[in-house]
Design brief:
- With about 250 residues, the chain is of the alpha/beta class.
- Helix content is about 25%, strand content about 25%.
- The protein has a nine-stranded mixed sheet with strand order 2-1-3-4-11-10-9-6-7, sandwiched between helices. Strands 5-8 form a two-stranded antiparallel sheet.
- The longest helix is centred in the C-terminal third of the chain and has 12 residues.
- The radius of gyration is 17 Å and the shape is globular.
């Protein structure tokens, strides 16, 4: 399915988009995701400044997840889903292709489960560290896997975001000795742990987030939550810019 960008043509947007007029973005949709999650990520990408040509990829889609399809794209997005072990069982055979895609210059964007999958236990091993369950931390302000609204510090500004059992991210203590790059921390949870980050991987880049900046009002209503006055989709656009811009 092709999605058309809804972005208005401001001067900055035109300047960014002109670098890649219609880069292809792939969004996974299949048994390692949940209904509504891939579609929300596709909407977020389509409404960004990048004029993405967005396609779903998966076992029941027109495009299958393989090396050839990945290397036709600028970005691959892994949306939210259910159980990590179950999802990885469906995706394990694609790990080499995803790693090679990013290492060769592609961009990986992971939301919630897609953030977990960027880690290593189990996962695609795209991070110099790992992703783990935030609600399992003793210092977390929430300990339920039900959906809720959390406050995160995004680049110095407190934002309310939709959250459901998302990950926090940890970096290996001495990762700079082995990775010729620095991680950029984009957001932190209330207890200081990492909620979103970006980092280079080979010639490519990885950006991951634990909460859901792609969530629209229907997500909140569907779970009986009061939507914040300011939805966080603009944070999703900033995440996309972070992974795309060198």
């Amino acid at each position: 399915m092709k999605w058309v960008s809804l972005a208005r043509n401001t001067s900055r947007r035109a300047r960014i988009s002109s670098t890649r007029p219609h880069p292809r973005a792939l969004v996974y949709r299949g048994p390692a995701s949940l209904p509504g999650c891939p579609e929300a990520v596709a909407d977020l990408l389509a409404s960004s400044v990048w004029n993405f040509d967005v396609h779903f990829v998966g076992p029941d889609e027109e495009l299958h997840l393989d090396e050839s399809t990945l290397h036709s794209a600028a970005l691959y997005a892994q949306p939210g889903g259910g159980d990590l072990d179950g999802a990885f069982a469906h995706l394990r055979r694609h790990v080499p292709a995803i790693q090679h895609f990013v290492r060769s210059g592609g961009r990986y964007l992971g939301f919630c489960l897609g953030g977990y999958l960027a880690g290593r236990s189990p996962g695609f091993e795209l991070l110099p560290g790992d992703a783990d369950q935030y609600v399992a931390m003793r210092s977390a302000e929430v300990h339920t896997t039900r959906s809720t609204v959390l406050e995160v510090d995004w680049s110095g500004q407190v934002e309310e975001m939709y959250f459901q059992d998302g990950p926090y991210f940890s970096l290996d203590r001495h990762y700079r000795r082995y990775y010729d790059c620095d991680a950029s921390i984009l957001a932190r949870y209330r207890n200081g742990s990492i909620a979103a980050l970006k980092i280079d991987y080979g010639q490519g880049r990885v950006a991951v987030v634990g909460p859901h900046p792609e969530a629209d009002e229907s997500w909140y209503r569907g779970d009986g939550l009061d939507a914040p006055e300011h939805l966080s989709t603009d944070l999703g656009h900033r995440l996309i810019n972070a992974v795309m811009i060198r």
